[in-house]
Specification:
The protein is built from ten helices and twelve strands.
Length: 321
């Protein structure tokens, strides 16, 4: 069994105040680290080399878990390809380089399922990540993240730097980004159906055809998997984090509508992009290497997310926000 990387360690979690990051900080705390740091961008802007150097100098971490990213749904990716490429690439490249220079003992890089080839055979095996170009609408983001896999493996080869690379599938859960312009598919659909139900609207628009498939991982499961890998995985191979189960966007949409008690009609806009045709991961490597398996099923996770959003929306309305 691998020795614990987290117990007694000083751990830096970039993006540790975000949707996923807050859960990762909580999960990491369960491994008895000496200290966990989750600085905000206002303290250290990791897009700037000087700020990255200062962050590592001031906090002196033993382990870095790099979650910070600029992300969004299909629309946001289409509108900001250059921004998404540059900011995600520069943050990861500089942080890994400066961590290596300062003698950080372990670096955990969080990748993205968007790095996989557009027509990868499902379920996606980690070894297939180089077998084609990513789906065009989010390729710049996916490629920026994939370059960090190259960096991690190159640094391990040349410097003996313990950099590991994890590939989570699409995440969702309470406290997600429910903005209709920048949010991902599940929070956007939940908001649409809750608002349409409350307003008595007879139709709800949905992007694409609904025929493509996706896999979704509940955010608490993702955080647990990341913490388990940060503590006990030290290999060079990239590792998928997911459920290994896919659903079509049409089935997902109908399930969310039902769970939101929305009785109107979904109107599909086929002029909008579907994105990648299929998305489902082979999750056997995570189970074999550090014992991770998802625990929260999709319907249960959707119920929890809808309950949180419905309560949050009512609280905001009551407060006059």
């Amino acid at each position: 069994m691998e020795a614990s990387s987290l117990r007694g360690a000083r751990v830096l979690v970039t993006g540790g105040n975000g949707f996923l990051g807050r859960r990762v900080v909580s999960e990491v705390a369960g491994f008895e680290p000496a200290e966990v740091f989750a600085p905000r961008r206002t303290q250290y802007d990791l897009r700037e080399r000087s700020a990255t150097e200062a962050c590592l100098r001031d906090l002196s971490p033993d382990v870095v878990i790099h979650l910070a990213a600029v992300v969004g749904g299909i629309g946001a990716n289409r509108e900001n390809p250059g921004l998404f490429f540059y900011e995600n690439a520069i943050m990861g490249i500089e942080l890994m380089e400066q961590a290596r220079r300062r003698g950080v003992g372990k670096f955990v890089q969080i990748g993205t399922v968007c790095s996989y080839p557009k027509f990868a055979e499902a379920p996606f095996r980690e070894d297939a990540i180089w077998e084609g170009y990513p789906e065009e609408t989010n390729a710049p983001y996916g490629l920026a993240k994939k370059m960090l896999l190259v960096q991690a493996q190159a640094y391990r080869q040349q410097y003996g730097f313990n950099a590991v690379y994890l590939i989570p599938v699409n995440l969702y859960g309470p406290e997600d980004n429910f903005d209709l312009e920048t949010g991902h598919v599940i929070p956007a659909l939940i908001r649409k159906f809750v608002e349409a139900r409350d307003r008595g609207e007879s139709t709800v628009p949905a992007w694409g055809t609904g025929n493509v498939s996706r896999e979704f991982l509940y955010v608490d499961d993702a955080a647990r998997g990341i913490a388990m890998a940060a503590d006990g995985y030290n290999g060079e191979e990239p590792v998928n984090l997911g459920t290994g189960r896919e659903t079509t966007i049409k089935d997902l949409t109908e399930t969310i509508a039902d769970l939101c008690s929305y009785e109107g009609e979904v109107v599909w806009d086929a002029s909008k992009p579907d994105g990648q045709p299929r998305r489902m991961l082979d999750t056997s490597r995570a189970k074999a290497l550090f014992g991770f398996e998802a625990q929260v099923g999709l319907e249960e996770g959707l119920r929890r997310t809808i309950d949180w959003y419905s309560s949050s929306a009512r609280n905001l309305t009551a407060a006059g926000v």
